[in-house]
Amino acid sequence: MASSLSGGNRLSLAMERTGQWIISQDIPSDVVVEVGEANFSLHKFMLVAKSNRIRKLIMESKQPDLTRINLSDIPGGPETFEKAAKFCYGVNFEITVHNVAALRCAAEYLEMTDKFCENNLTGRTEDFLAQVALTSLSGAIVVLKTCEDLLPMAEDLKIVQRCVDVATSKVSIEAKFPSRSPKNWWTEELSILDIEFFGRVIASLKLRGVKALTVASAIITYAEKWLRDLVRDHSGTAAKLAASDDSDLRLQQRELLESIVEILPTEKAVLPINFLCCLLRSAIFVKASSTCKTELERRISAVLEHVTVDDLLVLSFTYDGERLFDLESVRRIISGFVEKEKSVAVFNAGDFREVCSAAVIRVAKTVDAYLGEIATCVGLSISKFNGIASLIPKGARKVDDDLYRAIDIYLKAHPNLDEIEKEKVCSVMDALKLSYEARVHASQNKRLPVQIVLHALYYDQLKLRSGVDENDVQDAITTRSQVHHDVSLARENEELRTELLKMKMYITDLHKTGPAAVATTSSCKGGGGPKKAKFFSSMSKKLGRLNPFKQGSKDTSNIVDEDVDITKPRRRRFSIS
């Protein structure tokens, strides 16, 4: 009912407007032109004088007196036809940049050419395009915008291509010689276009050789305008607007985002890293295609040495900042960067494991700081935490202080981990590469597993014993092997203590039972003597292994007996009492 009323209102409105400019009310109309839901009561002789299409429809009609003509498929609809009819009646109206494209298409549709009638609508609109509309960037952009609803005729008439050419030419001039402030004012002009026409302008700019930074500025402005809720808003509005994965808004955003990624400049480092990270987060959020996400990951990975912790956090958290995204994108970005640097090192005949470039060292510090930021998330598993930390080569970290800080934060945020899980978390860190301050903190840190604390303490003891300066570069492999060797000696020392304790208890029992019991025991078992000898021989072997003078640096084979003071023997490293 409502639709019929609105249709009737439009019909009466169209007839009322027509009555205001028709040539004479005394001459009754003899034809009704239907354009959609609007009807125009007009005169055949006025229309036939200008429109060859209407003339042919009347001449070729099988009806002797054609009274109704349907032109519903005319470009521009009823409003454009009304202006074309006014032109046929000689009524003045204004041609503007907003209606010239529609009038040009309508003139082509109605065959209102100069061949049929001199100074017809086709010629008038062409003159306006050439002399007014396409002489400025703003005019060309507005005309191009109106062509979005006039396809494919606007394309066939070359109006679209002419607008694109003019816009490209004007932008290239403005980029070099700005005519107004701000210098990139033209990017706002381009941003009114549909993504299809905007992409054509960008492609034309690239072919013309316009600088990649100029192209990038236009794309950034366009993305921030049409994807404002995703790219610029950090208040969680985007999550509320697109609550459903299948919503129309989410689908439109997905298609637009994928189209924007396709037209990004191929040059490296022309787009801000934060902008790329925002695009990638948006792509994850709207569930864009894997091709789109892979391309953004590749671009970020190529300039990862310039990425900040905040940039990586943009990728990691949802728009409300309350939970983590899937960290696989971050892992792939870091992995891609490391693989690229590894290829460069191999090409330069270097050892990537030991010597890393300055870029890798910067990335290592960024990743460690990033791990410290996300370590507080309760939902972060050990495998994901270690997976990101282990991507960085060992040689990229001169000290593991930042990584130790991240591990400590993780252990504090996850207090229910058992000893084995704590050791898994700490497995990505080398306790021997901690600074003195970090080792002091680690030695007093009750959250760390005992093994890490012992390593930190023992390393300090080695340094104090050797007298090596903290700032001197040491061979980590030698130090680590020395620690492992001494720890094994400590274990054997503990085993020896246990065996000595057993031996004391055994001798005590023998004394309590008396000589008769000893004789009885010996005669019954028949092998007491050999077993006792075996026990003492095994213990002597263990004592031999515990000899601290068997190491290469402590060999005493070259010491002369006369120079040794035997009155005061040296104390052994490990006591067995």
Automatic annotation (TrEMBL):
Sorted UniProt keywords: Phosphoprotein, Ubl conjugation pathway
S-adenosyl-L-methionine recorded as keyword: no
Species in which this protein is naturally found: Malus domestica (Apple)
Location of the NPH3 domain: 184-463
Domain BTB: 29-97
Xref: Pfam families: BTB, NPH3
Stored InterPro entries: BTB/POZ_dom, NPH3/RPT2-like, NPH3_dom, SKP1/BTB/POZ_sf
Family membership: Belongs to the NPH3 family.
Keyword Repeat: no
Annotated signal sequence range: none
Record protein name field: Root phototropism protein 2
Pathway assigned in UniProt: Protein modification; protein ubiquitination
Alphabetical GO biological process terms: protein ubiquitination
